[in-house]
Design goal:
heterodimer, B: 222 residues, mainly alpha, 10 helices, 0% strand
Chain lengths: 243, 222
């Protein structure tokens, strides 16, 4: 089974139909374990119980960037290999990525209120995530502005790749502009600064959320394929009635 | 080379003629700048402090406004198809079109800057800093915006979609343009640091813009 075999939507539908229940089950189990561990984790000596927002906030923030990466790969698939499912993958990923980004912003804002004393700060990280959110919304607007899916797919693929090139530049420039958010503390040179009591639940939650993304993404891709079939059947029916 | 020169000359001539609309951008720039004191109040000290930001925002919006002229009229009369099918590499042709567009619509903004700076109570240093950063920054706005213009023309959707797609991408230009102007006026940072980053962003956009625009024209037109 290679990637090219999946180009047949029927094969893709039957394969994903078989693995989706397992994926959904694994996601539910991991998220339950992660939430339990997060609830059992000790309070922070400075932040108290609010530190537990981290277990939701950080995986969402990671996924907000990861989903753009997935969409960039799908964009390459559309433009370079013309893989027939690549544009379905790209289209299905955009709203999910926007949702993760939105959740990262909302949980961050709720965490910021008790810690920084304000819901919103024009701080570098917050601002660059907000810009990422705006770019997701622009991409969704592009998908929705065009009725021919293959034409929209190529335009969206180019915009996704330009965005992938531009996001590091935007991130750098916003960092330069203003900074208050703490620097990265899990993945950094010289090991994590996070205590093990926090690190393990966080990693479990991160894997759980990643599986959640895969599950939602595959389900959304199936919906998109079926939606396109319904659409072409309707067009066929309408043209038969006209004839 | 001559093909590109001809393309540039043709685009400039069309833009400056009746119906070309290159100078509407300057008029818009002037109007936005005149509106600002009505919103902020006629306090000259405040206008001095905000002047560089107002000029940069006005120039950003003005160059966005004229962007959809970059490909639309050529698409309507069919010459865009000739350019796409022609022997000149499409990337170079796109770069030439963007250069012509900047010469016709971007350069007038910079020429207008000293007059508008006078109205916002900017002194000579501040005005020349803003004009210099605009001179380096507006080509980046044109070349990044060209991607959005190419997408919009292949989708037959202009206007708001173009603005929504292009504005987030132009944030770095705005940040470093304003930062360099402020550094030249009040410090404490040396002018050179943000200014050279602005130059770098412009150079990067010269590469990304034509390639992305050419790819979207090639994939999108049929």
């Amino acid at each position: 089974m290679t990637l090219i075999d999946l180009a047949n939507p029927t094969k893709f539908l039957s394969l994903t139909g078989r693995i989706l229940p397992w994926l959904a089950g694994a996601t539910a189990i991991l998220l339950l374990i992660g939430l339990y561990q997060a609830a059992m984790a000790p309070d922070d000596y400075q932040q108290g119980a609010t530190v537990k927002i981290m277990f939701i906030h950080v995986p969402n923030a990671w996924l907000s960037m990861f989903v753009w990466g997935v969409m960039s790969l799908a964009a390459l698939g559309t433009l370079v290999w013309r893989h027939p499912l690549a544009d379905v993958a790209a289209k299905a990923a955009a709203p999910i990525g926007a949702a993760f980004t939105f959740l990262a912003l909302v949980t961050g804002s709720l965490w910021g209120r008790p810690m920084w004393g304000t819901y919103w700060q024009w701080d570098a990280r917050l601002t660059s995530v907000l810009i990422l959110f705006l770019m997701y919304l622009g991409l969704i607007a592009l998908w929705r502005a065009v009725d021919d899916p293959s034409r929209a797919a190529r335009a969206a693929a180019i915009l996704t790749l330009v965005g992938a090139l531009n996001l590091p530049i935007i991130k750098f420039s916003v960092d330069w502009w203003n900074t208050l958010h703490q620097p990265a503390s899990v993945l950094r040179m010289g090991g994590s600064t996070l205590d093990r009591a926090f690190l393990i639940p966080l990693l479990v939650m991160a894997v759980g959320f990643s599986l959640l993304f895969v599950t939602l993404h595959l389900a959304a891709m199936r919906n998109e394929i079926l939606r396109r079939r319904v659409r072409s059947l309707q067009i066929m029916q309408a043209s038969q009635q006209a004839a | 080379m001559t093909a590109l020169a001809v393309l540039i000359r043709r685009d400039i001539r069309i833009a400056l003629r009746v119906g070309g609309g290159a100078l509407i951008g300057v008029l818009f720039f002037l109007t936005v700048t005149v509106l600002m004191p009505f919103a902020l109040g006629p306090d000259l000290a405040l206008l001095t402090r905000l002047g560089p930001s107002i000029l940069w925002l006005g120039a950003l919006l003005a160059s966005l406004l004229t962007l959809d002229r970059l490909f639309t009229s050529d698409h309507e009369d069919g010459s865009l198809d000739l350019i796409v099918m022609g022997r000149t590499p499409l990337e170079l042709a796109c770069a030439a079109k963007a250069l012509a567009h900047w010469l016709a619509a971007g350069l007038p903004l910079i020429i207008a800057t000293p007059v508008l700076g006078l109205m916002l109570n900017l002194d000579a240093t501040a005005t020349s800093a803003v004009a210099l950063t605009l001179l380096v920054g507006t080509p980046a706005l044109t070349f990044i915006g060209m991607i959005g213009a190419a997408l919009a023309v292949t989708l037959h959707r202009g206007g708001l979609l173009l603005a929504v797609l292009v504005l987030p991408l132009s944030i770095p230009v705005l940040i470093f343009g304003v930062a360099a102007s402020q550094a030249a006026i009040s410090g404490p940072l040396p002018f050179g640091t943000p200014f050279s980053i602005l130059c770098a962003i412009s150079l990067v956009s010269f590469v990304i813009g034509p390639f992305a625009a050419a790819a979207s024209l090639r994939h999108g037109l049929d």
